[in-house]
Amino acid sequence: MRMGYQELIVELLLMPLVAFIVGMFMVLMMRKVAAKLQRRIGPPLLQPLYDIVKLHSKTTQISHGLIHDIGIVMAVGGYIAAETLLPVPGMNGIAEKGGLITLLYVMMIPSLGLALGVGQCANPNGSIGISRALTAMLAYDIPFVIVMFGVAWHFGTTNLVELISIQQAGGISTWGAVQMPLLALAGLFALQGMLGKQPFEIYVAPAEIATGPMVEMGGKYLGGLFVMQCFQLYTASVLYVTLFLGGGENWLFLLVKAFGVLLIPFTVAFLFPRFRTEDLVRLMWKWPVLLGLIGLAFISAR
Amino acid sequence: MNALDLLLSASLGTALIAFIFSRFLMGRMLLTMLYAVQLVILFQIAPASVVVSEMTFQIWDHTLRWQFDGISWFFALITIGSAFFVSWFASGEYGKRFETDTGSSRLLHVGLGLNVFSMLLLLASGDLLSLFLGWELVSWSGVLLMVLGGTDSRAAAVRYVTYAITAGMAVFFGIILLYTWTGSLAFEQIISASTSFSPAQLWLLTALLIGGFSIKMGLMPFHLWQAPAYALTAGPAMAFLGAISARMGLFAIILVLVKMISLQQLIELYIFADFFSARDLLAWIAAITIILPTYTALRQTDARLLLAWHGIGQGGYMMLGILMMDRMGSAGGLMHVFNYAIYQAALIMSVVAIIHRTGTADLNKLGGLVTRMPLTFVVMLIGIIGLAGLPPMSGFVSKWMIYRSVLNEGMPLIFLATVIGTLGTILSVYKLIHNSFLGQLRVEHHKVAEAPWSMMIPMLLLSAIVFVTGVMPGLVLEYVALVQQAMGISTVNFHLGGIDSSGSSISGDLDMIWVVIVLFSGFAIGALLFLSSGKSRRVNQLDNYAGGHFLTARNQYHYSDNFYAGLMHQIRPWYRGSFKWLEESVISITTSLGGLFKSFFHQPWTANWLLAGSTLIMIWLVL
After folding, report:
1. Are residues B611 and B463 in the same domain?
2. Helix, strand counts (H, E) of chain A
3. Could you tell me if B547 lies within 8 Å of chain A, comparing CB atoms?
């Protein structure tokens, strides 16, 4: 792929922007799903945007030190960078210079930034939250890595652009989800953990550790985390679509698939209570790992 | 006298000068400069060429030879480089206090000089005898650096000596076997003769040579000595030992695989019919060495022990990369040796700086130091990102190559093991930086100052290398490719910013320059968003949510002990200390055997026992 630098720069700017806008609608959908299940009406269309603007324009903004500030910048900035590694219809960004493994590790940078920022706040509730969140990461990343290995092994590439083009050239029968249903299922478990939704949201636990990482966050700090959540929903769902559902043939299909994928964790989230950390670890290391390993055995037998 | 002779004599000279001048500030600065001179001399040797030393040594009818090739050059660069930074770190204010407190500056600097010299001698070994000579020198000079931290460190050093003697005997036996079977001590004859070895011979050699060398490397199950021996000694000695010392074992293993028994033979040496080869066994040992020590590190409450345990785990990545022996994996393993040495030295130095200022490395007695030692925080942050293997630091690139190589070979479980190790490292290093630098500053640390510049500058330079070689891995891969050439492997396809995967079975490239540009642009946009909204107000650390209570300076409001309580609740039963049990049982068997022999000598009727014993053996032979 050869193209002008201007075009590339436009893509690099546009990809995070689109991700952010789509992400806001994903947050809206999450709230609407919750409202439907709880027989409420739910928030209006632009509520996520109002929330972000409100949080950023508060007059009282409390900082606990420079690392607190830098942590929020890293949390948002890391996802902005991650979006350029995730190809979408018409835009590949720098996806071919990074690939699946790089994306996985770039996605850990926002978590690291958040962890550093929360640490600087000097509140044990926050630190406990981070310790739980990192444990959860250790739990869900193990099935996710099995899934990732299986997909890369099956398609013979870690290049996300190639992954998409192979699945689109072959039609639905070559989609990851059809070829590797067990891995797709294990991937759903990992997705639920990655999004930090119930039953895997022990690290927030409002009644117990006062919302954990968010305990000292207010104003634009909480706003930054809100933005991060928009990016996170978008990244995780689009990545899942890329790995298992053939990516997006065009934007309409991509969005339908991505929102469809998210519907599963959202529905699960508002129907289940939360797990304790150790139960989460045990669950993640048992069922999805088992599914993933059986899935891998099928790939290797081929 | 050629450049190699000059290098070896300069190195020996440095140790001698250390003996005379190391008690004085000027003398220690001179020593640092002498390591720089050694680096300059090293760069006079072309890394791609084979330089034979003019120095030879006659033992009976055999001539000992020393020579440098690409492999030796690469390891020598890391060795002398680490010594240079460590010597600088220990020269100024640290050295002054170390001299007044312990009075063993001379031991530290002579030990450092002799370690570098013996390592260079080992790296330059040109045949089996000079290899053994260098190996023994490296083993024994290591002890000099291990005894600098009081009683505990001496106990750890004694434990190390036991392991080192075992390793030495195994290697010696292996060398004797090779000599008996091939009739030669030269590498060229051995590698050609080894093709006709039987599987039993190969197994014995693998066990003796690779087993012996892997004791130094700290591969499981020979890893127990390493963490205390490295961690409990004086700071600069720990930095040097941690950065490079154990890698001499890896160098020797590479020599075995390249110059004695080729890896191809190990691949064809099956344990179960056509299924699980000797190489798979070694790869699994490496994978287990990645996982278990990493999770032992996670449990440590002493920052030095935490880092030392990670050192053992990271050795597993290098070993795994080398064992892949393809262009991507071996390059990843070798590059990891370099990257690891740099960030481990920086990390250990940052911990030593904390000890220098606060007097403790206990992770439950620190906290909030970022406001007092911000530069040391930056060094540790860069170091932990490197150690955890996240972009944009150098550790990511070398691990990426190892992941890719395992992926190419289609080894899902090994791949999983490498990632489990990385995730454990992320958890553990976050605990390290959180418990020491983040959270609440303790009352007794309110007046702590930043580390002195004589310690800060080498730390910052090392961190700069970690970042620059992460963005432009091509700088290191250039030398790595030369090592691969010397090992006879096709070289990795690299460019300044990363790796081109063409030629491997699974495609997918890496270009760190782009990744880093985009990452920092992302941070810039995030910062713009952050700065454009309302101005924030700094508050005191006690101005915090405390569930209705008032916080005072006396409150310990820092969560540090048993940091990963939820995880530990789940995995604590897995820490059974099986390896400790194994070591103890070997010790008790040895002790009781020793006691048996001792009682034998104390017998008044020794001759009768001997007579009875030999008669029994005769009867058994006759029957």
Report:
1. no
2. 14, 1
3. yes
